[in-house]
Amino acid sequence: MSPDGTGKREALEPDEKASLKGRDSVVELSDSKNSRSPSIRDGSLTAKLENPLAGLTHEQLLVDAAEFARTHGLGDYTETLQKGALLAQDPAAFESLPMLTEEDRRVLRREFTHRWDHPKTLYYLVIMCSVAAAVQGMDESVINGANLFFPSQFGIEPTPGSGASREQWLIGLVNAAPSVRSGIVGCWLTAPLNRFFGRRGAIFVAAMISFITCIWQGVTNSWQHLLVARVFLGLGLGPKSATVPVYGAECAPPLIRGGLVMMYQTWTAFGIMFGYVMNFAFRNVPDPAGIRGLNWRLMLGSAGIPALVIVAQVYFCPESPRWYMMKGRYGKAFESLRRLRHTDLQAARDLYYIHVLLEAENKMSQKTHHKLLELFTVPRNRRATLASAIVMFMQQFCGINAIAYYSSNIFVQGGFSQTSALLASFGFGAVNFAFASPAIWTIDTFGRRNLLLVSFPIMAVMLLMTGFAFWIPASSSAHVGVIALGIYLFTAAYSFGEGPVPLTYSAEAFPLYIRDLGMSLATSVTWFFLSVVTLTVPALLGAWTPQGVFAWFAAWNIFGFLAALLFVPETKALSLEELDQVFSVPTRTHAAYQLKAAGHNFRKYVLRQKVGEMPPLYEHEGAIGEKTYAPGRVGAA
């Protein structure tokens, strides 16, 4: 690119015009407010973010790469960066590029044939991120076992049959404190922590807060003191949950990025399971002289140990190259990529592509001045916000964290002993972890929306079965068996559907120029409603009994199915431009189409009637209202 960038703009103009022409049929569906959206108002912006190098000649790329190397202190790598720039334009075209040697081609070919062959440093980073996710899960589950012990010690144990008592509200408040603080403050600390300390620094600070507050929880002497400690725990949960997936995504190679980001949810499930292991292991620890409640104190403190491991290890991992480049430290970014890739050529390719993508993002950012407002005022963004909010809200109101935080109490109310309740809770965690792993593959094959539409009805039925099981006479062996079975089957349905989808969906639904704000809003939604669930469940168990609570969450799963059907478009395997097309379809049009499609599919697959094919809804599937797919679609993957 020339120093003033004009060469790049001129080279892109034909593609920009084609992009705008191809998008007309979708853009016209939105109201006039679309003109305020950079991604809708100017199709060229989306085109540049989809591939900022599209349309440039090889000669121009070589000149631009040489200038890039000179101006950023990378002159010793000029030829390597020129090769990298050619590859960045079309990574799959390496066989036909004359500048590449046969050894270069062999390495690049191996990227496609051995997708998981990468330097040990990358996998060291993945392990560190996995431990961070496990800490998140442990912070959620160790309080589950502690709930059986600390209320009686601190004088807030509810009286059986007392209804929604003050004590139950206080237990809920103690449990909800971290998520309240995380949703209101913690998530919004993510941006400043990342800006000033980097990805590693933000993770270090969050993990240090988690370690200190976990130990703090273990030495509290009243429920008020425990409440304060857990409030401060929320300061670490929010930034960690938002930063770790971003850090992994920015360091991972594109071909395995989705799988590595999905592992955050998988290892969070592992952390939940391991927290139950700690609960079971410490349940019968006796109190030494001068210490009361050592068992629950060790449960809460155990989550601090993996957090300390993160603190000790995070700076042995390379910093995110994207963060270095945002700070203008291109030499450091290249060093980081060289540690994360096998060859300098691969590092140069990714460095140059990140560079041009950041330039395109910066140009987009300059065209908008009220990013937070545009999440709600721009129709395309508002629909992404609505869909993300639905999946994040339902992640809590599907009922999973009512079980994650209170399964031990629920099992005790169902007739289990304390030991059996803790063991049954471990089974819940094990099922959660076991069924989270397959989602790494199904989320990109079966689709985000389809997973939701399948899992919500199953979760509703399993919750109703669990609630009804409490009416089975306690003397019957089926009483506890059906309760446990219902919870386990519910958890399995959650783990492959509503469990992995929200984070992945929210991370891709928003345009790049407001993605950070969109993700902060989405994570704050899930943390806020987590606090609502953890605060109210003890009182609901007292007022409604377990039967009423399980029926309550079953009803929410029916709502979740309808909301996903009407307001959550599919985002699987779509390019940035295709995502713009999907979220540019008016909500009313999308909902009406999906209702019609639901009836069509019911007649076709349930009643086995012969019905015609539904016309496609989106331009990348074919023009709306037409039954044939449009040739030469814009933005094809």
From TrEMBL:
Name of the protein: Major facilitator superfamily (MFS) profile domain-containing protein
Q: Which GO terms describe its biological process?
A: myo-inositol transport; polyol transmembrane transport
Biased composition of type Basic and acidic residues is found at 1-34
Its Gene Ontology cellular component terms are:
membrane
Return the PANTHER family for the record: PROTON MYO-INOSITOL COTRANSPORTER (PTHR48020), SUGAR TRANSPORTER, PUTATIVE (AFU_ORTHOLOGUE AFUA_7G05830)-RELATED (PTHR48020:SF25)
Where located?
Membrane
- Endpoints of the signal sequence: none
The UniProt entry, under SUPFAM superfamilies, shows: MFS general substrate transporter
Query: Which Pfam families does the record match to this protein?
Result: Sugar_tr (PF00083)
Q: Does the keyword Transmembrane helix apply?
A: yes
What's in the keyword line of the UniProt record?
Answer: Membrane, Transmembrane, Transmembrane helix, Transport
Residues spanning the membrane: 201-219, 231-249, 261-282, 294-317, 420-443, 450-472, 478-496, 517-543, 549-568
In what way does this protein cross or attach to the membrane? Multi-pass membrane protein
Major facilitator superfamily (MFS) profile domain segment(s)? 125-572
Catalytic reaction equation(s): myo-inositol(out) + H(+)(out) = myo-inositol(in) + H(+)(in)
Question: To which species is this protein native?
Answer: Polyporus arcularius HHB13444
The answer, when asked if Transcription regulation is one of the entry's keywords, is: no
Q: Which family does it belong to?
A: Belongs to the major facilitator superfamily. Sugar transporter (TC 2.A.1.1) family.
What Gene Ontology molecular function terms does this protein carry? transmembrane transporter activity
Annotated stretches, region: Disordered = 1-44
* Annotated PROSITE patterns: MFS
